[in-house]
Design a protein that fits this description.
Elements (H helix, E strand, L loop, with lengths): L1 H11 L25 E6 L8 E6 L6 E3 L2 H17 L3 H14 L3
Antiparallel strand pairs: 1-2, 2-3
Helix pairs in contact: 1-3
Length: 105
């Protein structure tokens, strides 16, 4: 486990990596406002069609890909609230370092 945590710490130092931790002991209201797990996907396109933007959700059934603007806006808003509620980048790294020390041999 310690190696995995150390790897996350190492990755979090990369300029193209943003790692934020949402601790299990987080205050109520820090869970997904959408009520389910989701991801946002953006694929840039140099063509006239523009970028591809989709929200990916998982539930009991099949995964769903949502591309209508209303759903995207709702998921973007939820993402913004979650990232604002999560630990900042430096706090997340400190959290991982403290956690890693608990697994010291």
């Amino acid at each position: 486990m310690r190696e995995q945590i150390e790897h996350l710490i190492e990755l979090s130092n990369r300029p193209n990596m943003m790692l934020q931790i949402m601790p299990f002991k987080a205050a109520p209201g820090r869970r997904s406002p959408i009520g389910t797990r989701f991801g946002l996907l953006r694929v840039p396109s140099p063509g006239a069609a523009g970028p591809i933007e989709v929200a990916y959700t998982e539930g009991v059934g099949d995964p769903r890909y949502l591309d209508d603007q209303r759903a995207l806006d709702a998921h973007e808003s939820a993402w913004a609230r979650l990232t604002n509620a999560a630990l900042r980048f430096d706090e997340s790294r400190a959290f991982l370092k403290a956690l890693s020390s608990e697994y010291a041999t």
